[in-house]
Amino acid sequence: MSKITNMSFQNKTVWITGASSGIGKGLALAFSNQDANIIISARNEVKLKEVKAACKDPKKVRILSLDLTDFSSFEEKTKTAFNYFNEIDILVNNGGISQRSYAVDTELKVDQQIFEVNYFGTIALTKAILPYFISKKDGQIVVISSIMGKLGTPLRSAYAGSKHALHGFFDSLRAELYQDNIKVTIICPGYVNTDVSKNALTADGSKFEELDEATANGLSPEEFANKALKVISKQKREVIIAGVKEKAGVYLKRFFPSVLANVIRKVNVT
Question: Which CATH superfamily is domain 13-244 in?
């Protein structure tokens, strides 16, 4: 991975969730290239060890297993994360799960599972770290949302709902934390070539187990991570990192919603 210049992450401590593969792994490698201290979290410790070994300086990487649905563990996990480097500067909320099913077919337990991970897991971990950030009057919270946080498409009802909810929560939180000098950055990826579609939940909660065409043709995790670090470094409020067609959808939603509605009915999202 090429090193990005003009960054300010050297010796900063960054905690990344969902770091065992895909975007999370890409971010871990990119931050490592910037000489940051990194805490990588996910459920799969074997894959986390592979990510650590791939980093520029594995000695500056710590592994902290984390299940985003185990809310009761977050206070203790946050203490452990802090003790690794006696500091946390940036929390990157990246962990999440996608969907490939029609709303009418999707069992309610699947909608709940998606929200448990994507929404409640994210805000619960954020709330666990907030007292520390507030006490030191500094910190940055990064949320990896999605284009689906700006619009909705077929086969993504619960996923889009969970991402829309994140925008509402973190827009409000940003305003509340302004006086405490805590920054909130929301990044909306379009398609990124990861296993997100393979791991996506179907109507009964089983995995989709396929790499869909749009995902396969998306940005590489490396390309996304390079762009994301620039956004995080500048402490932007909200940025879309996506292809031209995906960005066009967001602008159509804003200025020509009826046009987008007609397009969305016909678009192939798998």
Answer: NAD(P)-binding Rossmann-like Domain (3.40.50.720)
